[in-house]
Every structure is written in structure tokens, then in C-alpha cells.
């Protein structure tokens, strides 16, 4: 099999060999350190470069000597006559000793150039560093042209193992990327592929399981496994440095210095900065300067694989490191939440949330598995907007449902309360009532949310009872007091379309709320109140006010509610405005689908027949993939006139309309009286007035008229 022979070659290294030779020939360079990550090929590259055929080279391999005396004995044994190049290979364990002695050697031998290979620099003034980078890997696999790293891996598989293993190029590229393009690791992966196959090899690398040792008998002990490579050069690392490496290894994220300091809670800032600098010097981390001027640290796939194998082999350390990281990620979540509420810092918060999204999700899963449900719920609550904007709301809600069933009663109650809030925010009022009712002793904002949910479901009496039982004003925060007063005003509002000043004053008070979520949520309640009261023109005005909020993309749920509210207002206003209904509904449906939001309404939707329009504007709105454009379209539609044709239902008082709706539900006079807390005879009198105003001869006719009105308003 002549094609199975393999001649060792420096793949993709010719330019680097030439550059090292140029540096050696430069008289200004007295000490040249060829540095780089373990297994990257420093020794082979330097050995090739020093053998230029014109200089006397003395090579000393310092991999074995255990102390300084052994180092210099090895050098003296090899030197003999004065060389022009002294090549000291594998200096990692003797950097400090050599750093003390090399300056004197250079002074004694003015014609000498010292070339060394080491993962870390000597820290000499005369030292010149040349970093050997791993082989390039592919960000997107090309089936026709494998990356240099994948080519080396394929070459190792196909020649050393006689082509007996069939491999998928896409998986080969994934393996090469996971190992950071380090040649030694690729050689070890080739042996694993021959034994397990490419896919199983990739799974082992990702999970932290060790790969089989090198099958070749002449492989040095320090190169037989990936762990051997790491251990040989890091035996003198202190515990803080090791913990830093293990913390960073648990994530694939490029790590900003400020974020490292935040995540490693409880550690001293200066000590961490010093350790990070040392780890960069040891080639265990690399760094760059980010756009914000901060240092950003990145760990190669090879080092990460080494450390994950260490964690896999030591479950106790793995638990400790994950607990430390979870605590740090919890702090990061709180920081992101604070930044999201600050308009000036929001762009930076969005970037943080995007970069750390996978780790935030993993931390919530960690808390869930470890039985720390309350901490998981807290993170879900703090990052509510993140889940929506990152299209992860469905995952977040499913996780919260599991947490609400935990054996911890406090965590379960917190979970149900948050689920109830999310249900209310998205318009699922029946779910909100059930969840908030089952929360243990709802206080503060939970009372207002439950009152609003009951009110939206038509149970005004219970809503008022909840408000009356709310904590006294002295026990509330200023925010709770203002929101509570507005909820109370909404629940007690009387015929908002009759008295212009009442609903407009309420609208203005809501619009003045400083917190956008409070403001948008209560505007939606007021808009729906006006719709139910038969005042679609006023409801339309309120929903448009919500749509005018700055940066609508921050509030996709509220924008859907407002868009659908505008559509329902047009639908209730009559056929003259029906052209706008399908367009607005299409825009709302697009946002709901794009953000993977749940079904937003419990009440009757606009009939599907209304949406079966061939208007090309519907497809235009639905395909813009931009929430700002959808909102801009809604604001470009004409406002409804102040006066609309009156309907019989609009002539009912609020109490009469309330009783008529309960009749529609099939309740008897006695049941209605019990529900509303009034006398049965009062119900009879109100019902007579209802029949007169609606011109209905019976309770059945009242129910039919109310249902028809509800369908037109929905």
C-alpha cells in the first residue's frame, strides 16, 4: 500500500519557519523564545528553523532534568566548543532558573544566540518572543476544501491507520475546532477515531471523557494524553489560578476581565488580575482588547478539553467549580436586570445577555437540578425581558411550570406567582387568576395583578374585595402605592365613555408612570375596559398611545396586545373601518410567531373570515421581520372619530351591563345577587331596565344581544 506511507511534515508552517530563521539571523536577537500552547508544534518548528546548515547548533532537551544543576549539566555536556546557536528545547519547568543564568551566559559568549521553546516567557529584557499558533479551523465546513487542522486530522487517520476508517468531513471539522487546531491533540483524536469512529470521538471530547493514549511506543510520556500535556506544564499552578482556568473552561464565551471579576465572587480583584496575566504568559489563555477597551480572555479548545477532562475525572471539584460559577452567573443576571432598566446602559446589557445566554440558561438548569428552585425562579424573573427578546419565552415558561411543582412550598408559590404575572401580561386572564390565587399569601404587586386578572375576567366584585384587603399604604413602596391607586381607579371606573374627563384623567395618570412595564400594562387594561364599555374610539386612542412607547422592540408582548387592541377597536367601529383589521392582526400574529410567544387572549378573537383577505398589505406587514415597522404601520392608520353610531348596549349603565353579562353566562337572579353582593330584588329591577333599553322580551334575547355585541367588540 504505497499510499499509506506518511512522511512527517510541518503542515502550514513554512512561513513561520522562515520567520524564525530571519529572527535568528538578526544580530539584535540574543534570546529567541518560541512559545505557544502545549502540543502546538513548537519543538518541531524550532528544530527545523535552527538547522539552516551555516551555524553550529547545540541542542539540549530539558524535558527530563528535574533541577537547575541537571539543566546546566545537560547544557555543558552538549556544548563542547562554543556554538553559534544554543537550542534549549522544552524549557517550561526551568524558566526561572534559566532566566537567572542566561544573561551571564550571553555576556560570556557575545556570538551566541539562544533559541528556546517554552509555553511561557523568561521575562528577560533581551528576549524576543515568537508565538506559534494552532492550525486554522473552519468556522463553516467546506466539503470541498477542508481546513488545515482538518486536513492534518484526515491525513493522520488515512495514513497511519491505512484508510480503514471512514469519516464525515463535517464531524472532522467539529473535532478539529473542539481541539483548537492543536496538532498533538489532532494526532490523539486520529487514534480515537480509528477506535471509536468520528462521531463518538466528538461526543467524548465534548463531555470531558479522556481520549485513548497515543498508540505509538516512541511518544514521550508528557505527550501520551491530553491530560499529560496539561499536567507537565502546570504542576506549579496555585489553587486560585487553577480555579480561574476551571471556571473559564466551563463556558465557551469570550470572557471580559470585568465579567471574570464579577463571576468569581468573593475573590480579590488584584489577585485575579495577576493570575490572569500569568495564565496568558503560560500560554493557557490568550487575550485581546475589546471595543470597550477591556481585555478579553479566550481559552483555546485544546486547553478547554484538557480542563474538562480534569473536571470529568474529579466530580467533587466539578461540583465546587459549578457552584462557584452559578453564584457568579446569578450576580451577572442581577446586574443585567439592573442595566436593562437603565436606557443609557441597556445596549450594553443586551450585549451581555446575548453573549452569556447559554451560561444563564445552564445556571438556571443547574439550580433546578441542585434543588435550589427559589434561585432559579429569581433568575427567571430578573431576566424576563431577555427570554422574550431572545425568543426563549417558551423554554422559560416550561421551566417555570416545573419549578412551580417543586416540593419547596416557598419556591413553588414564587413560581406560580411569576407564571401568573406572565399569563396576565400576555392576556391569558383565566390562567392568571388560577395561578395568582394559588400563590401563598400574595402581597404587594401580586394583589394588584390578581385584582386586574379578576377584573378582566368580569369578576369585578372579587377585584374590589382584593383591593380592599390589600396591605395598607404605609406598608407599600411608592411604586406599589401609585400602581395600586390606578388599579383601584380602573376597577371602580364608571361608564368611561360617558364622562370624558374620567377616562382621560386616568389615561394621563397611567401615561405618567415612570416604569414602562407598569405603564404599558395598565394602558392595555384601560383600552380593554373602553372596548367592553362600547367606546372603541377611545380604546383605539389608548392602544395607539401604548404603541408610541420609545423602542417598541423592547416590549414585543405589549406591542402585540396594543396591535390586537387597535384591530378590535376597528372591528367594533363597523364595516367602514374593517379594511385595517386584517392588516393589524397579521402584524400582531407575525410578532407572536417571530418571538415564539404564547396565545395571548382568552376571549373571543376576531372571526377568521375577517382575516381571510387577499390584501397584499397583509403579506407585506407579516414579512418585514421588524417590529418597529409593524408598529409604524399601525400608527399610520387613521384614528377613529370621536362620535360613532350608538349601539343599544352602550346605553346600559355599568351595573346593568355587568348583570346582562352574568345572564349570558346562564346565572339565575339569585346567583347574580350572590356574585355581586346585592339584593335579588335589585337584580330584578336592573334586569327590567336592561330589557327595556335593549328592546328584548326575555332573558334569552338579552343573552343573544350581549353575545353579538361581544363578538363585534372582540
Write the layout of secondary structure elements.
Elements: H1 14-25, E1 31-35, H2 42-50, E2 57-61, H3 68-79, E3 85-89, H4 95-108, E4 113-117, E5 127-131, H5 148-160, H6 169-178, H7 183-196, H8 198-207, H9 226-233, H10 239-249, E6 255-256, H11 257-263, H12 269-281, E7 286-289, E8 295-298, H13 301-313, H14 315-340, H15 346-355, H16 357-369, H17 373-382, H18 384-389, H19 393-403, H20 409-425, H21 429-438, H22 445-456, H23 460-468, H24 478-491, H25 500-511, H26 516-532, H27 536-547, H28 556-573, H29 580-594, H30 608-611, H31 616-622, H32 627-636, H33 654-664, H34 669-676, H35 680-694, H36 699-713
Parallel strand pairs: 1-4, 1-5, 2-3, 3-4
Antiparallel strand pairs: 6-8, 7-8
Helix pairs in contact: 1-2, 5-6, 5-7, 6-8, 7-8, 9-13, 10-12, 10-13, 14-15, 14-16, 16-17, 17-20, 19-20, 20-21, 20-22, 21-22, 22-23, 22-24, 23-24, 24-26, 25-26, 26-27, 26-28, 27-28, 28-29, 29-31, 29-32, 33-35, 33-36, 34-35
How does this structure look, described?
The radius of gyration is 36 Å and the shape is elongated. Helix 33 (654-664) crosses helix 36. The protein has a five-stranded parallel beta sheet with strand order 2-3-4-1-5, sandwiched between helices. The protein is mainly alpha-helical. 60% of the residues lie in helices and 5% in strands.
Query: Helix- and strand-based class?
Result: mainly alpha
Q: Summarize the biggest pleated sheet.
A: 5 strands, parallel
Q: If you average the pLDDT, what whole number results?
A: 83
Percent of residues in helices comes to 55-70%
Which stretches are poorly predicted, pLDDT < 50 over at least 5 residues?
1-5, 495-500, 601-605, 607-614
Shape: elongated
Total DSSP E strands: 8
Q: Kindly, what is the distance between the CA atoms of the first and last residues, rounded to a whole number of angstroms?
A: 79 Å
- Give the radius of gyration: 36 Å
